[in-house]
């Protein structure tokens, strides 16, 4: 295990980090470890497995995040992930949504560390890949550091080498998933302490990280930083982080978009609707003159039937016109 493999990563985000998003993010960040949206083990066992696991070699390394609480189901799902070429299997022990709780997985599993350990052990026996866990610092009334310590001890006992910790607790009742990403206060110090108490673990911190400066600050205390919503709303932050952490030259945004065009054209030929790709590109010019015009054209025209590359070119023309008028 090499902790450097988890130095920079992009969080798994439902309805956001699909394969088109990951392809785009890889353009911006050659080193980042990318994660799928959470996929339930049951869906892989009984659903459209090929569709759910589909990704391109260009995206790699990609981790498959699984949801579930049945060790045997998770073990089989992990096998499918390994066969599909994923680099890591990650267990979701952090999602607070009602639907996830009804399935007895996600953040509610923090109350059952022994069960999580059994799930991890089953997956580790099933695949040669790293099996990691993404959790919160606490859940509901179970909010003492001792509870997080106890949970982590179970993970270490099960053979976990990397723990991704969202530095907020989760309220399973009374807060929506969105509110759970914003209202519970961040407690980075607790994650830092966890690294001190478990130095053998790769500890990756997640939550509220929006720029390269905070990334560098966290890397002084823990092994890795996982960037979430900031990477989606302002994706060029990934390029800035690459520059700060790895010394990669900052890419030209227009060049990134040009490099996306062959991928988009290929997907259009395969029947993918343009809107499913361009929704991930809306923030590329965030904060720059003309960005609003670029977003508006994509938002208004990409959903049209048979929309093609001409929509992206029109969005760039609108951006340039607004930039010239500024």
UniProtKB/TrEMBL annotation:
CDD domains linked to this entry: DUS_like_FMN (cd02801)
Required cofactor names: FMN
Residues covered by the DUS-like FMN-binding domain: 10-312
Residue positions of the active site: 95
PROSITE patterns noted in UniProt: UPF0034 (PS01136)
Family matches, as InterPro entries: Aldolase_TIM, DUS-like_FMN-bd, DUS_fam, DusA, tRNA_hU_synthase_CS
Catalyzed chemical reaction(s): 5,6-dihydrouridine(20) in tRNA + NADP(+) = uridine(20) in tRNA + NADPH + H(+); 5,6-dihydrouridine(20a) in tRNA + NAD(+) = uridine(20a) in tRNA + NADH + H(+); 5,6-dihydrouridine(20) in tRNA + NAD(+) = uridine(20) in tRNA + NADH + H(+); 5,6-dihydrouridine(20a) in tRNA + NADP(+) = uridine(20a) in tRNA + NADPH + H(+)
EC number(s) recorded for this UniProt protein: 1.3.1.91
Gene3D superfamilies, A to Z: 1.20.120.1460, Aldolase class I (3.20.20.70)
Alphabetic keyword roster: Flavoprotein, FMN, NADP, Nucleotide-binding, Oxidoreductase, RNA-binding, tRNA processing, tRNA-binding
Coiled-coil stretches: none
Function according to Swiss-Prot or TrEMBL: Catalyzes the synthesis of 5,6-dihydrouridine (D), a modified base found in the D-loop of most tRNAs, via the reduction of the C5-C6 double bond in target uridines. Specifically modifies U20 and U20a in tRNAs.
Family according to the record: Belongs to the dus family. Belongs to the Dus family. DusA subfamily.
NCBIfam families per record: PRK11815.1, yjbN
The protein, known as: tRNA-dihydrouridine(20/20a) synthase
Gene: dusA
């Amino acid at each position: 295990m090499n902790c450097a493999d988890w130095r920079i990563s992009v969080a798994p985000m439902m309805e956001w980090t699909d394969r088109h998003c990951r392809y785009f993010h890889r353009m911006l960040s050659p080193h980042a470890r990318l994660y799928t949206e959470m996929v339930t083990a049951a869906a892989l066992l009984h659903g459209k497995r090929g569709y759910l696991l589909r990704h391109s070699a260009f995206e790699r390394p990609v981790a498959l995040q699984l949801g579930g609480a049945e060790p045997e189901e998770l073990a089989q799902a992990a096998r499918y992930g390994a066969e599909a070429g994923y680099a890591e299997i990650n267990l979701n022990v952090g999602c607070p949504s009602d639907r996830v709780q009804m399935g007895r997985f996600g953040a509610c599993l923090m109350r059952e560390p022994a069960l999580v350990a059994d799930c991890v052990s089953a997956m580790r026996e099933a695949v040669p890949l790293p099996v990691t866990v993404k959790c919160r610092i606490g859940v509901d009334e179970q909010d003492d550091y001792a509870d997080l310590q106890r949970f982590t001890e179970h993970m270490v006992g099960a053979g976990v080498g990397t723990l991704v910790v969202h530095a907020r607790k989760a309220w399973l009742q009374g807060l929506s998933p969105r509110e759970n990403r914003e209202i519970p206060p961040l407690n980075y110090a607790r994650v830092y302490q966890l690294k001190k108490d478990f130095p053998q673990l790769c500890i990756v911190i997640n939550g509220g990280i929006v720029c390269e400066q905070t990334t560098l600050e966290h890397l002084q205390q823990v092994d890795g930083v996982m960037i979430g919503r900031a990477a989606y709303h302002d994706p060029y932050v990934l390029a800035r982080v690459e520059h700060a952490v790895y010394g990669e030259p900052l890419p030209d945004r227009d060049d990134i978009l040009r490099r996306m065009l062959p991928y988009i054209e290929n997907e259009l030929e395969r029947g993918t609707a343009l809107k499913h790709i361009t929704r991930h590109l809306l923030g590329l010019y965030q904060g720059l003159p003309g960005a609003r015009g670029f977003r508006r054209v994509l938002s208004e025209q990409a959903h049209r039937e048979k929309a093609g590359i001409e929509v992206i070119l029109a969005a760039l023309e609108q951006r340039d016109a607004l930039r010239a008028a500024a």
